[in-house]
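re: ur question from yesterday

yeah so i grabbed the chain u mentioned. its 694 aa long if i counted rite. heres the sequnce exactly as i have it in my notes:
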Amino acid sequence: MAGNLIGGADESVTDTLRRSEARLREAQSLAHIGNWEFVIDTGEIYWSDEVFRIYGLDPARGRPDYRTHRDQIHPDDHAALNEVVRQAQEDGRQYAVDIRIIHAQTGELRYVRQVGHAEKTADGRVVRLAGCMVDITDRKRTELALRDSEERFSAFMRHGPHLASMRDAEGNVIFNNEAVIRLEAEAREPGSAAAGWLERRRAEWQALAKSILSANQVFETVESVPGAHGTRHFHCIRFPYANTQGERFVGTIGVDITAGRRMESALQESEARFRSAFGQAAIGMILADVEAGRYIQVNQVFCELTGYSESELLQLTFRDITHPDDLDISADILRNALAGQAATWMEKRYVRKGGTCVWARISLSPVQDAKGKVLHFMGLIEDITEIRETRENARSNEERWQLALQGTSDGIWDWDAITGDVFYSPRWKEMLGYRYDDLPNLTSTWDGLVHPADLAAATAALQLHLDQVVPRYEAEYRIRCKDGRYKWIQARGKAVWDAAGKPLRLVGVHTDISDRKAAEERLQFQAEHDPLTSLANRRLGFQKLDEEISRARAKSDPMFVCVCDLDHFKNINDTYGHACGDDVLICFAGILRETLRKHDISVRMGGDEFVFILPNITIENAMICTARVREKLATFGFVTEAGVVFSVTATFGMARLLPGMDAGGVLEAADRALYEAKQLGRNRVHQLREQMVG
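ran it thru and got these structure tokens back, copy pasting raw so excuse formatting
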């Protein structure tokens, strides 16, 4: 029967592992993560199915070879990859490197992050390389596009002919271009009248920056700057700006209008120069009237974004090229701006001249006259089509992930390391007996449910993965169910890091392994306990004896060991049969459990020989306790199947743990005491005379 139970448990564990491996392959496919191995001695390479897909190869073609792997890596990336692999083999650390590969089917260049580590023998010889591979093409393309946009904008701002500066939300200068730096240097020249003036105006400009962000409006002024060579005049436009991370700034563009013209001419010239700066901006810029929303001025970037020429756009309104489904969004934003409300930005679709759509992020600000009347709107437009596509792909992947896991018995958890938000799937909570609304989606929920004895180890395993010490998060621990019971689960997860190695997100699954753990506990119990009496067996008994000796020595506590034999037990087997003898052994084990203290340890050494360990007890109490065992056995009436009643006695040898004794020594003393007890007539508790002294 025990064999059937063990066999069934093994099959259950095997089935669970098989299902877990299938789910792992599915999760790798959804997350575009594959794993690989390379055996140094044999040259064998193993790729998971997802690695084949990343390379554009068919997994059915069999094991890959090194040439296939090398030929698809961009030639310029070979040296970098070889260097990090070489370094990993030398110092044993995990490596991570971004490389480009040539897709086998499409021929396109794709970006992948390869993470790996080297495994060494005891003598330091590298025998295996292993790791994982993630397709990061979409993220890389977005990063490169943003970087190119930022570089073009930075080049314009830094080297342009006009004054350009940027202040943060507190009014602090975070950027001055070369023209501003030269102007301030000129103001500080000996004999300049601008030195004190510059410091006074600095505080005013700081307050003005805060005011512009608060009102979310464009502000136009003419600044007169006294210098060593006379006063210079600048037409300055200050405008609020928000980047894609939500950070807000005040930008300033100043056009020099000094050239000896009258104010009216100077303003006309500044308008022309502003149009020049307007047209050279690295992002789309527009001016539109208030009444009809007609474009008054557009720059080249906006023309390229919409596909229309400047002359065509000046004949249109924003409604003409806005996607019909987004017209209400535009109207709401305009109403808010006219009402003086802040934060006038939106995301919407433009319909390009050819009929295709492009997503844009628009920061809209009203331009007002001195009396506060809105004259027109100024807009900064960024093409976010690729960002939206990446976002939609991520959402689609998430939906497919959820659909794929609806039929599984595993619970899903998803932790956003940036915001601290966490998601527990309905199945995750259902596994523990909760309804979805019973548990809040907080990290503290997990902290409060994990068994206190397992929390430190589970948290340490998680930190090792977040620190990229191990390639994945794996832990087994107990977690409390709604009814108060604890259930064993296996947690597995994988993190995603940014380019700086900072974790962004951790996604994983909870698998119920209670049945497997119960099977393991049964196997462990069977390995350490006597199958007939369920007492500790000989191997476990010696282990417990060593532990109790160490504890007694550390605390200076007294300890006794008693060895006992059932008197004439062979006659019972010969007379009444082995089944009756087994009943006697089982009954005696029960007497030991009932009579001895809870922390005493009973062991069946074999046959009818038993040992029990009595820690932290006086000799008087040890003798009393053992005498009770002897008396209960002697007075117990055993009955055979034929109705014959008989009794059984036992003889006990008691030994005290003395200084210098180990497990063998105290057992030998107890055996000698047992031998003397048998010589004295059996059915008694006996201690050696030399142990009674002191």
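noticed a couple things. The chain is about 45% helix and 30% strand. also The first strand starts at residue 33 and ends at 39.
anyway ttyl
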